[in-house]
Design a protein that fits this description.
mainly alpha, 8 helices
């Protein structure tokens, strides 16, 4: 019998982990940017939602048996083009939660063989459904660390502005 390497509970708890990290961060800190070449916390959250939509499409494309190469997306241009830093965190998080729940329903229905269905990703590598979901989880963890770094950078900048040495 096949042993799945993806923990569906871990997938379904991603929203809670994100919410826990950002729930107490004030709005001015959520939209703060160290400089114009980096993302704010709001932009990171928007990216995570964009990524979830892209993965939703990729997942369904693989499960359908399509031979089309899975699409890439220009994350920086998507963020810029939708004025992501002006987004509402509550709405972003609620949409993210809904998307995870919707996909969770699908993932729970998959049979062992479905997890091994594959397609070619934008890097011309063959990837399975299982690998797509595991990569999705890892991607969220990467960005949770990024959110914490942005929050730390904000706090350091406030200390510097107040004339305190860090």
């Amino acid at each position: 019998m096949y042993k799945l390497s993806v923990d569906l509970n871990e997938y379904l708890q991603l929203y809670e982990q994100i919410n826990q990290v950002v729930s107490d961060i004030p709005k001015n800190q959520l939209q703060w940017k160290k400089n114009e070449t980096v993302w704010s916390i709001t932009e990171v959250l928007t990216h995570l939602l964009d990524h979830a939509f892209v993965v939703n499409f990729r997942l369904r494309e693989v499960l359908s048996g399509s031979s089309v190469q899975l699409p890439a997306f220009n994350q920086d241009e998507w963020i810029k083009g939708q004025y992501a830093n002006e987004g509402n965190i509550t709405e972003l998080l609620e949409t993210y939660r809904s998307v995870l729940q919707y996909n969770g329903q699908l993932l729970r229905r998959l049979k062992n063989d479905d997890w091994q269905k594959s397609a070619i990703n934008p890097k011309n590598q063959e990837v399975t459904v299982e690998e797509i979901i595991q990569s999705f989880i890892s991607h969220v963890y990467h960005h949770l660390k990024q959110i914490k770094r942005i929050a730390d950078d904000f706090n350091i900048s406030v200390q510097i502005e107040r004339g305190n040495h860090v």
